[in-house]
Amino acid sequence: MHKSPTIKAQLIAVISFLSLMLVFLGWLGVSNLNKTVHSIHAIYTERVLPLETLKVVSDMYAVNIVDTAHKTRNGNLNWAQSLSKITEAEQKIQQNWNAYRIAAHLDEEKRLITQAAPLMESANKSIAKLKAIVEQHDSKALAYYTSYELYPEIDPITQKISELVAIQLVVAKSEYESSNKIYQQSFCLSLVAISTSILLATFIGVIFYRSITHVINQAHEYFMRMASGNVHIDIEINGQHELSKILEAAQSMKNKLVNDVTQAHETANEFARIKVALDNVSTNVMITDNARNIIYVNQSATQTLKKALPPLAQQHTGIQFDKLVGCNIDQFHQIPSEQAKILATLNKTYRTQISIANKAFRLTANPVVNDTNNRLGIVVEWEDVTDRIALQQKLEDQAQRDFLTGLANRRYFIELAEQELLRTLRYKCDLSVLVLDLDYFKKINDAYGHKAGDLVLQQFARTCQVVLREVDIIGRLGGEEFAVLLPKAAGALAVEIAERLLKAFQDDSVTLDNNETIKFTASIGVATLSNESQSIDEMLQEADAALYRAKHAGRNKVVAAFWRV
Asked: What pLDDT score was predicted for residue 1?
């Protein structure tokens, strides 16, 4: 078996080589930079600074001395100012000339300095003479001096200084060209070194890349063959470096896939048997994945949804009912986000009731978990309970409603009234109750029969429903006696409502089959909640007592319990 270098060894080699190349290039760059800086520094110290000192000397002779002499003669400078400028010029000439002589190294420079010595001595004597004239304030002597003696003494030394400047410029140019040549050579050498480093790094990188991609391409080929379904392949593992572990992983994956494919066939056969069983049960069944996407719908559920298709398609426009598999079950809910919140974390049986096409279904959802208790999805069953709910509602209505008038019976009225009392006490509102009794109802039964009496009771109930508010609660306590609970109604408003009822009863009547008309009236007792400890029974007793007073006062009247007798 061919033993390849490890990836770690190859990386160390590449990084070491690149580090050495970087160190070499850095050293080369620093060395060239040092040479260039040294050359520039030499030009500055040996040529630029001497030129500056020569320029100062030349300016002192050609400008300060000559210019001061002329300005003094013309009266532009007084004698004191002129003397100060001449003295300053003398000092600067001496300082800068001495500095230049010390820095001069070329033979030609020394030769010219020797030649300039007598000229400078002569020029300095001339300056001394000018200084004496100025000190004596001799205008005539100054005019003669500036016209005939100044220039012959100053011009020779300034010319000699110009020769020295010319030598400095020639030497500076030569030294600059030499430095530039060194720089160009260093630059070319650096380019060659960088190019060579890049080529070597590229070559090493290609070798390193091929050593890695060879194994990766092998692994890719094996993985693609396994992905296409060919899991029975032989995987060759060559080499010992780290990437060979990919091939080892591919070998392990192949072995696992062989086992998984075998188990998948067994699972598919088991699922087919379960599907046949589920398709033959009457319960509606759906199975979803963990994201609540439908992965199975049994025949019963399919038929149920097909029957309800037109209204469902109108209500849930985003669902394709002919292609339920793949749809999200949350879309069946009126508020999908609420159902998603419940089912996303479902870990036990969940029951609720849903409505599909005006039919009620009892829905049960159970999580599907594997042997390690990991949730795989959700099984949803729903059963049509429309008839059962309708029957239950009918029984509840019969237990709570008066069969003749449809109003709340006594028990249900008391239950609603006690709930309203609690609400009234919590929010500190007003609450009143009316107790109503049909006047002379026994005479109506005796004169027209019980059937006519029933018609009067029904019309009485309808009139109450028309006159009273939606929040008011009406109940038949028994026989011809009724009660009305008035939420948020104080005594005055309760009496006003009772008076409206009396007026409505007086204007109302019942017409029998033989066209006979029955008129009826009622007496009403009113009671209002007076303290927080009062109960509904106590309020009804107060209203009943007030009703009794209304009866004895001649009937067809309203009497409030809180009125003084």
From this structure: 46
